[in-house]
Amino acid sequence: MAASQTGLLLIADITGYTAYLNESELEHAQETLSTLLELLIEHTRPPLILSRLAGDAVISYALQGALPGGQTLVEMIEDTYVAFRRAIELMVLNNTCRCSACANVSALDLKFFVHAGRFAIQRLSAQDELVGTDVNLLHRLLKNRVVAATGVHAYTLYTEAAISNLGLEEVSVAMQPHTETVEHIGEVRVWVQDLHAVWQRKRASVQVTLPPNRIVQQLEIETSVPPELVWGYLSLPEFRSVIIGSDRQEILHRREGRIAPGTVFQCYHGETLILQTILAWEPFERMLTEDLLPLPGVGTLIRVMIEFRLEPTPAGTRLIQIFGKAKGPLHGRLMGDLVMKRFPGRWRTYLENFKMRIERDVAEGGGLPQVIGGLTAGEIEAAAAASLAKY
Predict the structure, then answer these.
(1) How far, rounded to the nearest angstrom, does the alpha carbon of residue 354 sit from its chain's CA centroid?
(2) What percentage of the chain exceeds 70 in pLDDT?
(3) What is the pTM of this model?
(4) What's the rounded Cα separation, in Å, for the pair 286 and 309?
(5) How far is 391 from 205, CA to CA, in rounded Å?
């Protein structure tokens, strides 16, 4: 008997086949679906663990405590959806085939379902089969009234248990509350996030960058922790304090309960207060802040842009910290640039301390999931064929 576990359950479900399929072009439809399933599998990254494919859906899970913060999972899902929409756009732009399957690929869309609870893991061949009442509940929520009740066609559905488990009560205020009635269980409260709105904001966003000619200092480290988790740690005050070298930090001006451009990290260094305002927030890739720094003994303030970039490596993540030239009064700029250039050892020590801290935290939480086996191209194609056979 498999031991019971506590954690998160996630289903990514590709939808829209009714408007998409044509029996005479099944081969092209299967190729498209296989490509999209591969994309979803590629984005199922630690701490998420791939369970199995269920036709046109990818099922995964994360054990309790594996995520450094609830916003990290929200951003992982949003990142996956944006990648999905970009893949659909590329298919449409690069399409030279006149068949219905290729012409109607834009009808495909994506939904996510997130629940928290207890489940058992049964190892079957190279896949984890999840069983339990909470698993059954999530599967039954796939058939719902969300579109009819909210008008939202592409969404993430979070159950009340997931919202509580992830600490997303403030974030859920920006979502649409909804109630589903499930046979033998009763009413299930859920919150629905519109993913099309996420996609539109991403497409309309303007990238704020640190120009190469404004760079004063650049340092980097490599860690065994994957980018998704490194990003999560960078957003937590107790871990940011380590990489910045502050006594403590507070987060001000969240946007709809989330860290976003305009949010301020308030850093305490003894009696000195430093404000870091987020200018760019690109999950799992880069964050850019403008730091307001008082110069001791000078009686002036300068502004310095500091960027963190995350690059995936075969072993984990390369974390790069970049310091920009100071802005402000001339004497302040000169002193600020001098400090950034002449004391790289201090900043490197902070980076190394951060690396050790997050690697220790991951180890104390049970370490990174060990993925055994995987899904071959043939297995993905077979899942796609089985899904299309229903239509």
Answers:
(1) 20
(2) 88
(3) 0.91
(4) 4
(5) 38
Question: Looking at residues 233-244, what average pLDDT do you find?
Answer: 95
Average pLDDT over residues 270-293: 93
pLDDT tens, position by position, 66-125? 988 899 999 999 999 999 999 998 888 776 666 666 667 888 999 999 999 999 988 776
Handedness of CA 150, 152, 154, 160 (dihedral sign): negative
Q: Report the pLDDT value the prediction gives residue 24, as an integer from 0 to 100.
A: 43
Separation CA 286–CA 220 (nearest Å): 13
pLDDT given at position 61 = 95
Amino acid at 94: N
Angle between helices 377-388 and 26-42 (to 10 degrees): 130
φ, ψ of residue 150 to 5 degrees: the values are: -115, -20
Summarize pLDDT for 330-387 with one digit per residue, the tens.
766 777 667 666 666 888 999 999 999 999 999 998 787 766 556 777 777 877 777 7
Residue 376, both tokens: 């071959």
Query: How deeply is 184 buried, as exposed, middle or buried, from its count of CB atoms within 10 A (0-12, 13-18, 19+)?
Result: exposed
What's the mean pLDDT when you consider all of the chain? 88
Q: Which amino acid type is present at position 327? A: K
What's the chain look like in SS3?
A: CCCEEEEEEEEEEEECCCCCCCHHHHHHHHHHHHHHHHHHHHCCCCCCEEEEEECCEEEEEEECCCCCCHHHHHHHHHHHHHHHHHHHHHHHHCCCCCCHHHHCHHHCEEEEEEEEEEEEEEEECCEEEEECHHHHHHHHCCCCCHHHHHCCCCEEEEEHHHHHHHCCCCHHHHCEEEEEEECCCEEEEEEEEEHHHHHHHHHHCCCCCCCHHHEEEEEEEEECCCHHHHHHHHCCHHHHHHHHCCCEEEEECCECCECCCCCEEEEEECCEEEEEEEEEEECCCEEEEEEEEEECCCCEEEEEEEEEEEEEECCEEEEEEEEECCECCHHHHHHHHHHHHHCHHHHHHHHHHHHHHHHHHHHHCCCCCCCCCCCCHHHHHHHHHHHHCCC
